[in-house]
Amino acid sequence: MSAEIERRFVIESIDPDFHRRAFKRIRIEQGYYSTMPGTSLRIRIKDGMSAVITHKRGNGLVREEIEGTLPFETARAQLEHACDYRIFKTRHLVDRWEIDEFHGPLSGLWIAEIELRSHDEPLPEFPRWITSVKEVTDSVNNLALAELASFIEGRELDRPVREYLRSPVPIAVLTGGPGSGKSTAMEALKQEFGDRIVFLPEMATLVMQQVGFKPPPADDIVGQAHFQRMIFGAQRVFEHGAQSEALLQGKKLVLADRGTLDNAAYLPDGLKDLARICGIVPDEEVRRYRQIIWLDSPPKEVYEQIKGNNPVRRETYEEADALGTRILHCWRSPLLVEVFGQSWDGKLAHVRKLVSDLLRD
Q1: Tens of pLDDT along 292-336?
Q2: pTM of the full predicted structure?
Q3: Which of 40, 55, 62 lies closest to 116, judged by CA?
Q4: Is residue 31 domain-shared with residue 149, that is, in the same domain?
Q5: Cα separations (Å) of 308 from 176, 180, 289, 301, 317?
Q6: CATH code for position 128
């Protein structure tokens, strides 16, 4: 596995005589299988002659990449019958730059890519016939373009394709142990910020209440693995859908009641188990979010009152507090903000301030 350090730019203005220049050109057909957000598995055919299959993981500047060759006929069959999204482009090779001219539904779109030797290598100058660019390293990749192509195929567009490329709406997580006040805080935030935020419910509760699934006993190791993988997958799918909905509605943030790493708190070996079961790197998973807001457990007498009003709540105070601590340890990173306080009004004011700051970013 190798790390790909790559920057991407949408070309907004290019010399109309570009095609007369004698650059090496490659015709590329590229297809993508459906995968979890944050990963991609693609088939690429070059000049109708050779083919490779590539797995990428991660977002932004640095991504992990594994690539291997495929028999041409196998690749052609996979591209046409198994890949959900496809793109067609001509790649123009100019020194170290790869200038992609897209065809089909994405006609009119040009993107310049360059692979850097290190994180801090200065960006080489653009070819002089490129006069205006916009960097999209953190927001656009070829999988996103292939998905866009499928959405707009056959439609008459009212503006250039590049204007449909929008940065993904950031996701923040509100988490904590049982009785910490997540649900109450989410309801208060909906009342104040509902016009600017898409709110995502707690996934385990949604799956159990709406679908009827029940978590297996703690000593059923295989059942626990299946259950946590299902919750993890549902969380990823719903987060991706919430981001799309936020874009359509013009909202600025997705706020999730718990995030994917919360699941690790329910497994014997925590993050190690979750990484093995779901095939993730925890540090990369944290970076998918803009901020993690963790709420401390309330005083014991407050928890007992909450438990008395909620027949579903079965954890003792000690169990709930210990679970909240395990959740906290799952999210340890610079993106984590811990919210303490004996006063509920004080905790809610702190959360409100954090969310307000995210909306101003």
Answers
A1: 999 999 988 888 888 776 666 678 899 999 999 999 999 999 999
A2: 0.73
A3: 62
A4: yes
A5: 19, 15, 34, 11, 12
A6: 2.40.320.10
